[in-house]
Amino acid sequence: MLVSLLITLLAQNSGKLGGFFGREIQAWFLSQLARHEPSLAESIHSSERIKPYTVSSLIKPQTFSRVADNPNNEYWLRITTLTESIGTVLLEKMAPRLPSTLRLQSEELKITGWTTKGLWTGQTTYNEIMEQTNASSSLSRIRLRFASPTAFRSQQINNPFPLPDYVWKSLFWKWILFAPDTLQINPKWPEFAANCITVTEFDIHSEKINLRGNKGILFGGCVGDATYHLLPEKECGEFSSFWHNAEQVLKLLAEFSMFSGVGHHTTMGLGQTLWIK
User: In which domain, by residue range, is 239 found?
Assistant: First the structure.
């Protein structure tokens, strides 16, 4: 089960919250998961595999921009899940029994509700995503929005530019890990993406955040939109045999990106991504 759930909050004091709260919200989410399913929380926390969830930092309604000073005192946070077990717990146990408040810094935020309907939210399955993208109209360009700092690890270096190789390989590996065996993508996809997908437009900038609180570790990533274009078959050389199914895979992974996030540290608020249709 794929779930993207939005929690709404209201600051009870000044409404001024500075910084990036992805790490704190991750800890809060895992503590809530442990309240309802301690064994599941422990297995996820102790595993060294890619985690089956993402969380956002605290975000402003509608704009999805990073928090600084919000005069309306209203905020969002978002949780997504990539497996049936954690998705079921989120929807059936956690969401209906959310605590009344969430404390960040010295601010007490009142939790006012939650939804899986509307902007940046949804509930689906891997099969439904596959069926939906197979039935959708033809296109060779995909525009992705990176709403929180997004970056990729390559040869022990943090790369903040969303190159096709990095973006589509990141999505591929999460799909491979969590989707049913019957829906697996050709293992040549990362090579194909590196050679046959290009960036045609981008409107992005870099942002630095303090990812680990008082340890003072600054992390840089890109924020903004990038458009990816599938090259013509004749330009794909040795990968041309994969070209005919590539458009479907491109749409499939773009739809998946809202749930999976892109790049690393998606469990701490980074890589929040949406296909802009």
Answer: 135-275
Residues 200 and 266 reside in one and the same domain: yes
The string of pLDDT tens digits covering residues 98-136 is 999 999 888 889 999 999 998 899 999 999 999 999 888
Whose CA is closest to 56, among 44, 66, 46, 68?
A: 66
Residues 186, 146, 110: CA angle, nearest 5 degrees: 120
Percentage of residues in the chain with pLDDT exceeding 70? 92
Phi, psi for residue 153 in degrees, rounded to 5:
-95, 125
Query: Does residue 41 sit in helix, strand or coil?
Result: helix
Using the 3D structure, point to which of 58, 82, 115 is the last residue of a domain. 115
Residue 263, SS3? coil
**CB of 178 closer than 8 Å to CB of 80:** no
Query: Quick one: tokens of 34?
Result: 């442990």
**How many whole angstroms separate alpha carbon 212 and alpha carbon 221?**
15
Instruction: Please spell the DSSP secondary structure of 209-228, one letter per residue.
Output: EETTGGG--EEEEEEEEEEE
**How far, in Å, CA of 266 to CA of 264, rounded?**
5
- The verdict on pTM exceeding 0.90 is yes
Tally of CB atoms within 10 A around 60: 16
Band the pLDDT of 163: cuts 50, 70, 90.
very high
- 158-187 average pLDDT score: 96
Q: Are residues 171 and 72 in the same domain?
A: no
Q: What is the chain's mean pLDDT, rounded?
A: 91
Say yes or no: 11 and 40 in one domain: yes
130 three-class SS: helix
